[in-house]
Design brief:
Shape of chain A: elongated
Largest interface: A-B, 48 and 74 residues
Structural class of chain B: alpha/beta
Structural class of chain A: mainly alpha
Number of strands of chain B: 40
Oligomer: heterodimer
Number of domains of chain A: 2
Number of domains of chain B: 6
Shape of chain B: flat
Strand content of chain A: under 5%
Order of helices and strands of chain A: HHHH
Largest sheet of chain B: 8 strands, mixed
Number of helices of chain B: 53
Largest sheet of chain A: none
CATH class of the largest domain in chain B: Alpha Beta
Strand order of the largest sheet of chain B: 29-28-27-30-31-32-33-40
Distance between the termini of chain B: 38 Å
Number of strands of chain A: 0
């Protein structure tokens, strides 16, 4: 029920440029809400594909080097080494 | 030809745009027209939700494993200057990933994306090894001289994209107009720009019947109240000439304007129409005359095309004809600008106008709106023209363009590879003479040849080198010197063999990666020596595990070190650390593929051993020195004597042949005999035969003596079994000396052509060996011919100069284009990135993770089995028994091609559960840590005993896994908390629902423990359909019945025999299961009270723990009530027994002592006690519920009803039947062993053999 209502609201919003622009601006500050609404838009047939995180960029960062697999940690260490060498050669 | 198409465009918001639709349709048509070519699609994991949809769009067109997903961290949208470093790094990482697919052609449908979203597209930012093409955009507004973009940041972005466009190897144009424009402005020669034409999805864009109701709703939604004229401006850009259209519209008759509206459809929500509306107002238009709509779904767009009275497209220059072709295909009358690509689509002068003249636009609009006949004619023309723009035609032209531009990889290797400016410095790490290994002699021969290409330094782990030629020409350094000076070298070459002479190389290789020459494919003996001598403690066990997983460790545990060394190559560490590997036989290449998959085989090249032809061979002199007469027939077999050389077979054949009786024939084993049983047995056999004068063993001899035998021999016999891929130096020596050679077809020797030696079958008989010996003895011509052919072959294929040249090619290939080298180049390239805001630590960590994800790892696909609950606390319930048993079976018999890795979740991060697994398998410490898991595409995740909370919290992680190509499966042990919430605490049901909602959304398939569970799951899915694009596979497997295979617990408590004795005294009815509300214990207790009151001599035996101990007391009142009732019962300890937490060993004895199992549970996922009872031939009384019917069928006695009387009556009826020996017997009940159960589970998750699929519904409202 709620989903149908939201879909109807979104249809009105996206067909109304000024409201749409304001909605986009608002959603850019609330990426998770934006992602959920985009999913709903796709489910309601408003969109051809369910959009991903794009358009509402989110920063997804791992916790730190300790959260990496040993192989990724090895790459991380080599990347730091390469940056150091590059700095030294400048 | 392998073509890779980057489809990120169809993942982002651009998928709503015309370009997005075009790219998707063209990609499908390209897939349809691929023929023998190999098409790959590339997607980004930044858009995980879109990936299942796109995969389903290409179902049947592109195999799932050719839709590759690259990992990338974000955000990278370029409109935010904070993203610049990430965006630049992402470009390089993406190109690195693309190059890893080894494409012949990379097609990027559109470069000009990524301003607003996380699409990354570039050409030539890092890698130029592919042949990259893109579709030409409209250039007019992009060229610096034409762009009036005031935002310097956006201007820079466009200039970067323009540079990428220039970096393309060739371009595809959608029209001749676009082609000419690009040729004039970008300077591409005309052959490098190929017109492939526009394409239309004619199944979607076509005249449609739209009902009155749909039409009214659509027009109302867009506030359209009059017949309307439609225009689609695309980007809010000057090239579209929207002001010109508005001015022209204001020039129309007022009558026409008052009866029509102008609908302007936008593509992006980013555009603002306010300035357009202001322009319209200044042109005298009223607000009501204009309607704007942004981002209309496809089905609505097509409906609007069908409904519009006229379509106008007033572009000024340089855009595609697609905006007019789509409405044309829907039967809209279309008029358009005469200056762009549109005339090529419309081809009708009276439908074209000069876009810079508003009055010309107005006149054509006026003509079309006022003249019904003209509009009709335009409509018919539009439909007929649109038919000529099919995507299949575009795809055919695109493939033709790819084929015409395709160049083999060999022509694309950078020139610097072919001609280095100076000799690269090479560290040559190898044992050298006088070390007693064939590799030392091999290296001594190779180094002078390689010195033509490299400035060589010899790295040794020995006191001295006694080869004067080497010491005179090459500096010699120690291992420790290389450790501190390794960076001085451009290349490092390791000569690695299976002996302790190479012990120093493993650590060096890790520190200074280089190319490894694997003289032996199996390295277990060397590595085991290092562990056994304490050189590197636990190294053998670690290598076994890392190379071969738990089967390797199990072999070591149960069969011993020697067997493990012979059975497992144990060399993956070396292959992983090396830039590339050189082997001497195809056998070794195939072994690499067989053990570790195709990926590792791409890092292995075969180069023949080098062998120069011997000079100054003097047979007579050699014979004289050896004391052999000129007319003697000398048969030699070279090498250390042991079982693998089949020396005993040669001796037996010799003794059975006519050669024994020929006094001129001599057999000499040139090599050291072992002091083991085998060696002694050989000596005994020779002594007993009385032929000690004819069969000799030389023992260890020096190089000169060895050469003398080669010069003196008439025939060489080299037999072999249990090869581990090593190439025989002795065989090559014999060939180089032009000797007749007799071998059996085993191992790498099979690769020699048949006309240079005599090859017996691998499993030859003694008779065949005798016949071959005699034939070769008697046929000197044959021997001579074989010898000559052998020398010719050696000269051609083992020529040292040629081999050295091949070495150089391989070393340089690996150093520049090998996977490891490319990764190092990428890191250097990323390290050199300059951006106003440098990377944070988090950016670097994320980049490292992306690079690791995008770097394929050699090895078998992992079957990651989540046993988080088991790892945390084994509650010993039925579910844990199932999990433990299946895991053990999977570890002991992994599915073909899979490496089984138990994993556990800890604070949202999955780790390998190595400690748990080693404990379960009873294997001692192997120096292994529970590292974070390293997943690769094609791996399988199986939630066997997952923590529901962890799973629900990890929804995004699973989506990311699925996006990257992992297959995700869960075992559903039951759905009872969802289907029977009344039996569970409220929190439990809610948590279970969250788990279920997650798994139905993120999984590829769900494996249930019974058909009934499949059915209830399907019903649940129908009632609460998940949001997913792909079908969800459903299947079932049944747990096993053999307790012995489930890592049973053991131990019998004091007084157990008294209990068993009590059970045997009367008919004992057994109930097995934790004490929970649904298990029917209350009813059973009351029923037995009734039976006892009726003086029936029966016992009730309950085996199970008190359930829900971690639940708050108020929620477990029912359980507490039952346990109090049991403990306080007058029959407790007499005819009522409660055996809590007993071992499996004890349980088996209780089964055996009981008369009948009562399965009174009101709801179950399966019913493990039923099959365990059947295994013990114990009769069963079961509640009549579907799952028990499924499990026990006709082999149980059923009862119905929840009243105590119902069960009491059932027991009495069963007792009556028992007296007449008519009770249903359970022994014949069909059931699986745990091994069979695990195989069935593997069939589903590995081979895709599921029972059924639940399919999501379609959503097109106008379909």
């Amino acid at each position: 029920m709620l989903k149908r209502f939201m879909a109807r609201v979104m249809t009105r919003v996206v067909t109304h440029p000024s409201i749409n622009a304001r909605a986009i601006s608002l959603l850019s500050r609330h990426p998770n809400l934006g992602t959920r609404l985009r999913g709903l838009a796709a489910a309601s047939g408003l969109a051809h594909f369910a959009p991903g995180t794009a358009g509402v960029p989110t920063l997804t960062l791992p916790d730190g080097p300790q959260s990496l697999s040993p192989r990724a940690q090895h790459i991380y260490a080599n990347l730091l080494k390469a940056i150091e060498q590059n700095r030294a050669s400048r | 030809m392998r073509v890779v198409v980057d489809l990120q465009l169809c993942q982002s918001e651009s998928s709503f745009s015309r370009t997005g639709r075009y790219s998707m349709s063209l990609a499908k048509a390209i897939a349809r027209q691929a023929g023998d070519h190999e098409l790959w699609l590339v997607l980004s994991d930044r858009f995980p939700d879109t990936i299942p949809t796109i995969r389903s769009e290409f179902e049947g067109l592109v195999p799932r494993d050719r839709i590759a997903v690259f990992a990338m961290n974000g955000p990278v949208a370029e409109n935010d200057p904070n993203n610049l470093w990430r965006a630049r790094a992402a470009e390089k990482i993406r190109e690195y990933f693309l190059a890893g697919l080894k494409p012949d052609i990379v097609h990027v449908p559109c470069l000009f994306r990524g301003w607003h979203d996380d699409v990354v597209s570039s050409i030539g930012a890092f890698d130029q090894s592919g042949h990259t093409t893109t579709i030409l955009p409209g250039l007019a507004s992009l060229l610096p001289q034409q762009s009036h973009q005031p935002d310097p940041h956006l201007r820079e972005y466009r200039l970067r994209k323009l540079q990428s466009l220039r970096n393309a190897d060739f371009l595809l144009a959608v029209s001749d107009s676009s082609r000419q424009e690009a040729s004039a402005t970008l300077g591409f020669d005309s052959a490098s720009i190929i017109t492939v034409s526009e394409g239309l999805d004619q199944d979607r864009f076509k005249p449609r019947k739209i009902s009155r109701q749909q039409k009214d709703a659509l027009l109302r939604r867009h506030q359209i109240t009059r017949p309307f004229i439609m225009s689609v401006p695309g980007d809010p850009d000057t090239r579209i000439n929207l002001p010109g259209l508005l001015t022209a519209y204001s020039h129309l008759d007022s009558k026409l304007r008052s009866t029509h509206q102008l609908l302007i459809l936008g593509e992006s929500h980013h555009q603002s129409y306010e300035h357009i509306r202001q322009h319209a107002r200044s042109a005298g238009l009223q607000d009501v005359e204009l309607v704007f709509a942004a981002r209309v779904p496809d089905d609505e767009l097509i409906a609007l095309y069908n409904l519009c009275k006229l379509f106008v497209f007033p572009a000024l220059y340089g855009v595609s004809a697609l905006p007019v072709l789509e409405p044309m295909a829907c039967g809209a009358p279309v008029i358009a600008s005469n200056t762009t690509s549109t005339p090529e689509a419309i081809t009708r002068p009276d439908a074209l106008f000069v876009p810079t003249r508003p009055e010309a636009i107005a006149k054509t609009m006026q003509d079309a709106l006022a003249d019904d006949g003209f509009r009709r004619s335009l409509r018919q023309h539009a439909l007929s023209r649109a038919k000529e723009f099919s995507f299949d035609r575009v795809a055919r032209r695109t493939w033709a363009a790819f084929e015409s531009q395709h160049k083999p990889h060999s022509q694309r290797i950078p020139a610097s590879v072919a001609a280095p400016q100076r000799k690269p410095r090479l560290a040559f790490v190898s044992p050298l003479p006088p070390e007693r290994t064939g590799i030392a002699d091999y290296s001594a021969e190779l180094v002078p040849e390689l010195a033509r290409f490299y400035d060589i330094t010899l790295i040794i782990d020995q006191p001295n080198v006694d080869d004067a030629s080497l010491t005179a020409n090459f500096p010699t350094r120690s291992v420790s010197w290389l450790q501190t000076n390794g960076d001085r070298f451009d290349r490092v070459l390791y000569q690695l063999g299976n002996s302790q002479f190479h012990k120093h190389m493993f650590a060096l290789l890790k520190q200074h990666p280089g190319v490894v020459v694997l003289h032996d494919f199996f390295l277990g003996h060397a590595i085991h020596w290092m562990e056994a001598t304490g050189y590197l403690p636990t190294f053998f066990r670690q290598s076994l595990y890392l190379s071969h997983g738990y089967p390797g460790l199990l072999a070591l545990e149960h069969q011993g070190a020697e067997a493990a060394q012979w059975s497992y190559p144990c060399n993956k560490l070396a292959l992983d650390e090396a830039d590339g590997a050189i082997v001497h036989s195809q056998y070794a290449v195939d072994a690499a593929r067989r053990w570790y998959g195709d990926e590792v085989a791409t890092q292995v090249v075969r180069i023949p051993q080098l062998r120069s032809l011997p000079l100054g061979v003097n047979r007579d002199q050699a014979r004289a020195l050896l004391g052999i007469r000129a007319d003697d027939f000398l048969v030699c077999s070279f090498g250390i004597l042991n079982q693998t050389k089949l020396n005993h077979r040669l001796i037996e054949a010799w003794l059975g042949s006519s050669l024994l009786r020929d006094r001129r024939c001599h057999l000499v084993f040139v090599g050291e005999n072992g002091r083991d049983k085998y060696g002694k047995a050989l000596l005994e056999r020779i002594c007993k035969s009385g032929s000690a004068d004819k069969i000799q063993m030389t023992g260890h001899i020096g190089f000169d003596r060895y050469q003398q035998y080669l010069e003196a021999a008439d025939l060489v016999v080299q037999l072999r079994t249990a090869s581990r891929g090593e190439t025989s130096r002795s065989v090559l020596d014999a060939l180089a000396h032009g000797l007749a050679l007799l071998v059996n077809a085993h191992g790498p020797v099979t690769e020699y052509p048949d006309d240079i030696l005599v090859k017996l079958p691998d499993d030859f008989t003694d008779t065949a060996l005798i016949a071959a010996l005699e034939d070769l003895r008697n046929d000197s011509t044959l021997r001579r011919q074989l010898g000559m052919a052998a020398r010719r072959y050696t000269a051609e294929f083992h020529n040292p100069r040629k081999v050295a040249e091949e070495y150089r090619r391989a070393i340089e290939h690996f150093a520049r284009l090998g996977a490891k080298a490319r990764c190092r180049d990428l890191l250097d390239s990323v390290a050199r990135l300059a951006a106003p805001l440098g990377p944070s630590q988090a950016d670097l960590v994320a980049a490292a993770e992306s690079i690791a994800s995008n770097t394929p790892q050699a090895g078998q696909r992992q079957l990651l089995v989540d046993v988080s609950v088991l790892a945390r606390h084994d509650l010993k319930t039925g579910i844990e028994r199932v999990a433990r048993s299946l895991l053990l079976q999977l570890l002991n018999s992994p599915p073909a091609g899979c490496r089984v890795e138990p994993i556990r979740c800890e604070r949202g991060i999955y780790h390998y559960a190595r400690r748990l697994t080693l404990d379960m398998l009873g294997i001692g410490k192997a120096g292994l840590r529970d590292d974070k898991i390293d997943v690769q595409r094609n791996d399988i995740f199986l939630g066997l005993d997952s923590d529901p909370g962890d799973v629900a919290r990890s929804r995004e992680l699973f989506k990311r896994y699925a996006a990257r190509g992992l297959e995700v499966f869960f075992v559903v042990h039951d759905t009872l908390p969802a289907s029977h919430p009344e039996f569970f605490p409220p929190d439990c049901s809610a948590g279970f629902e969250r788990w279920l909602e997650t798994v139905v959304e993120v999984s590829n398939g769900l494996a249930c423990v019974s058909q009934c569970t499949v059915e209830t799951l399907r019903t649940w899915l129908d009632a609460r359909p998940p949001r997913r694009a792909e079908p969800l596979h459903l299947g079932h497997f049944c747990p096993g019945a053999d307790i012995a295979s489930s890592a049973p617990t053991s131990g019998l408590p004091e007084g157990f025999s008294a209990v068993l004795h009590a059970l045997n005294r009367a008919a004992s009815f057994l109930m097995v299961g934790t004490i929970e509300p649904r298990k029917g214990y209350s009813q059973a207790l009351s029923a037995f009270e009734q039976l006892w009151s009726e003086k029936m001599e029966v016992n009730l035996v309950i085996v199970g723990r008190e359930g829900w101990k971690n639940v708050e007391p108020r929620l477990r009142q029912h359980i507490v009530g039952i346990t109090r009732r049991i403990r306080g019962h007058t029959e407790f300890g007499k005819r009522l027994l409660w055996l809590e937490g007993i071992s499996d060993e004890y349980l088996e004895k209780v089964y055996a002592a009981s008369a009948c199992l009562i399965a009174a549970s009101e709801a179950e996922g399966f019913g493990l006690p039923l099959i365990e009872a059947a295994q013990q031939k114990l009769p069963i009384i079961a509640r009549d519920i579907p799952v028990f019917r499924e499990v026990a069928g006709k082999y149980a006695f059923y009862f119905d009803g929840l009243e105590p009387k119902a069960l009491a009556e059932a027991v009495k009826a069963w007792m009556a039947l028992r007296k007449r020996q008519r009770v249903p017997l359970s022994a014949e009940m069909p059931r699986l062993t745990w091994d069979e159960s695990a195989r069935r589970l593997s069939e589903m998750i590995v081979n895709g053999r599921w029972d059924r699929a639940w399919k999501p519904a379609s959503r097109d409202q106008f379909a």
